[in-house]
User: Fold Insulinase family protein from Flavobacterium stagni.
Amino acid sequence: MKKSLIALSSLLMLGGTAHAQKVAFEEYDLANGMHVILHNDPSAPVVITSVMYHVGAKDERPDRTGFAHFFEHLLFEGTQNIKRGEWFKIVTGNGGTNNANTTDDRTYYFEVFPSNNLELGLWMESERLMHPVINQIGVDTQNEVVKEEKRLRVDNQPYGQLIAEVKRNMFFKHPYRWATIGSMEHLDASTLEEFQAFNKKYYTPNNAVLVIAGQIDVAQTKEWIQKYFAPIPRGEEIKRETFVEDPITKEMHATYEDPNIQKPMVVASYRTPSMKSRDARVLDMISSYLSDGNSSKLYKKIVDDKKMALQIGAFNYSQEDYGMYILYGMPQGDATSADLIKEIDEEIVKLQTDLISEKDYQKLQNQFENNYVNSNASVEGVAENLASYYLLYGDVNLINTEIEMYRSITREEIRDIAKKYLNPNQRLILDYVPAKDKAESK
Assistant:
């Protein structure tokens, strides 16, 4: 699931300029439409077997939300050849680890094994795809697991509803308007046949990318892939609906009462374009400039100097179809939420009016170089990046070339993109406040 709100404000690591080796890879398609990407890294005797499916919360029906995340859990229940409850035992018993995660746009599964267990990882992921057991026992079991996760991570978590509330008030047509974890009422109301139909529609080889990264014998790996994945039947082509939001032309306001908090938070959110756009990359830089680290503009001014806030931050919440540029702050002392918005707006107007300094621009370049290196510093990171760049961006080689886009962003672009997207008449102001009556709110 998503990182915590505070962690999201520090997505980019500070550091000096670093340099990374080009990530070499080979890609091809199986006859059934499954895309395969291989990356040989002999530096450590480990291998990751991962499959990313092009299905997320946005592919759900409005009255059946939560299916994509539910399947992240359900497909560990077992297969025709892996008994219920045995999946994790097999992985750990062979020196491995595994996990999965879901977003609005995709679902990702992976195992990390010692490299001599690659065939096992391939067999297990092919089993998940070809022979899943989706029965009422598994559905009932995972229903309780998901409910507990929602209680722990959302319902009883301070500020746990923040992103969901921003989305709900920013999107009116697009499925991004509902929470990734979905509605427990929708899951309770769903039939076994609906779960089986969801699996049949989206868990197909032609809706997935298989990535193998680590210490591998490429020829042998291809043989095993052919053996385990080629026999899986191709699924029907998925017809995806396009949802176009009307532009936001006046400032919107909303309030949410959270029974788990004592300190209010104010959020300013702007709807932004797809993460595939150049503008989204510029917005990444703007968020880093404004709030990345204690020396960033917003933190230094509002937290350190004026002591008006306990926390301040900005991040670009990029997704496949749209994004949200989110600024947030927790007022302290005599400062109000309106005071924080005024201070934030002053810094945005400076961005929209003047070019950032050469020193700040070089600092940004160093940060993004370092972030690029860190994102590809492990086989796990490389595997997920390869899968994402293929499935969501349509260009695997962005793993090597996206950094060039960031390097080419100019100070003038930073000014112009701030002027294009970060205006008061294009945003939502969300007052995220303590519940007036906590007992009633629960």
